[in-house]
């Protein structure tokens, strides 16, 4: 009989217990020492840097996060994390014409309102958004 001892990927402890299955059928394990969950043989599914830049470029060109989810197959939380981490946030400020770039006077913004009911007709919600007319990017919303 062959005994295989699994170790935690994070702390190398052998205090692992089975913790259900992943959606694709792999066994999940929970480390009692470290408190994290992992798979037996994880495969990294990170996108290459060129693919990330391509997706961020598509996002800058008018696409919404939901549109990226459908077309590129990347979750909204992943894209928003990339936007926060990358220098694209500063790129967006530069394209829109933030007060730091000195081009704020030449930028024209469009304001748009949207309303809908939430749960029932007594709860009416309004959303206001400001878009840059030149780049069609959302500058602010409330």
Describe this structure in words.
By secondary structure, the chain is of the alpha+beta class. The chain has three domains: 1-44, no CATH class; 49-86; 107-141, no CATH class. It contains four helices and six strands. It has helices at residues 49-60, 65-72, 76-85, 88-96; strands at 16-21, 27-31, 37-39, 109-118, 120-132, 138-141. Strands 1-2-3 form a three-stranded antiparallel beta sheet, with no helix packed on it. Strands 4-5-6 form a three-stranded antiparallel beta sheet, with no helix packed on it. Strand 4 and strand 5 form a beta hairpin. The radius of gyration is 23 Å and the shape is elongated. Mean pLDDT is 75; it is low at 94-105.
Instruction: Tell me the fraction of residues in β-strands, as a range.
Output: 25-35%
The helix/strand series, from N terminus to C terminus, equals EEEHHHHEEE
- The total beta strand count reads 6
Distance between the termini: 64 Å
State the secondary-structure class: alpha+beta
Overall mean pLDDT score?
75
Q: Count the DSSP helices.
A: 4
Please state the oligomeric state of the protein chains shown. Answer: single chain
Tell me the Rg in angstroms. Answer: 23 Å
Let me know the largest β-sheet.
Answer: 3 strands, antiparallel
Shape descriptor: elongated
> How many domains?
3
Q: Going across the major beta sheet, what is the strand order?
A: 1-2-3
Helix content: 25-40%
- Contiguous runs where pLDDT drops below 50 for at least 5 residues: 94-105
